Amino acid sequence: xxxxxxxxxxxxxxxxxxxSIIKRARERGLAEIHLHDLRAFTADKxxxxxxxxxxxxxxxxxKPEPIFACVEHIQKTYQLESAKVILMSPQxxxxxxxxxxxxxxxxxxxxxxxxxxxxxxxxxELLVTEEISIGDYVVTGGELPAMIxxxxxxxxxxxxxxxxxSAYGDSFQSNSLDHPHYTRPEDFRGQRVPDVxxxxxxAKIAAWRKEVxxxxxxxxxxxxxQNPTPNxxxxxx
Length: 237
Prior knowledge:
Alpha/beta knot; Trp Operon Repressor, Chain A; five-stranded parallel beta sheet; three-stranded mixed beta sheet; 8 helices; 18% strand
């Protein structure tokens, strides 16, 4: 799967893309991540990617020319004319696990990282196919949201995780929170591992995990129980 990230600040991605699961996915050839520097698609000597807003007001706005030039370059060079062009935006659809399950079916994604006060509206009207928000709060730019989306999607790609059950049981994957986990020692500061987990009875362990996960979800995120449960196996590309 290809990810093409359009950003004015590519160095922000250096650490997250070279560690842990994303690093392994790239080394195995399961995910390709291409960073495209907006400043390489500017036409002025200062390599300006932003300008003052018409009508006045605070902040700077990302200019449309470099964004269009960059995206059109990606579409032509990589033959991705039909790929989704997704803008990281507080006005977008809230990102959740169902969104990740849908995006993992795509062969490629073009992720636009907004910055400063926002992007020229013509980018939304003429270029963007979807807008995604990671929550009702403000961050400096779209770079962190793009990293979150890539991480959530890449871990769903077949072969990325050593044991696919690790993805099956994730919180939100079945519209519920995960069950508690324990490891050695059996007794830590007076708190023992539940006896059922030491029993070796797989059916009882599975029933206990399901019951505790449902109870935890009811207590902490009852809203999840009101949503239809996706079939994870059908979402694997």
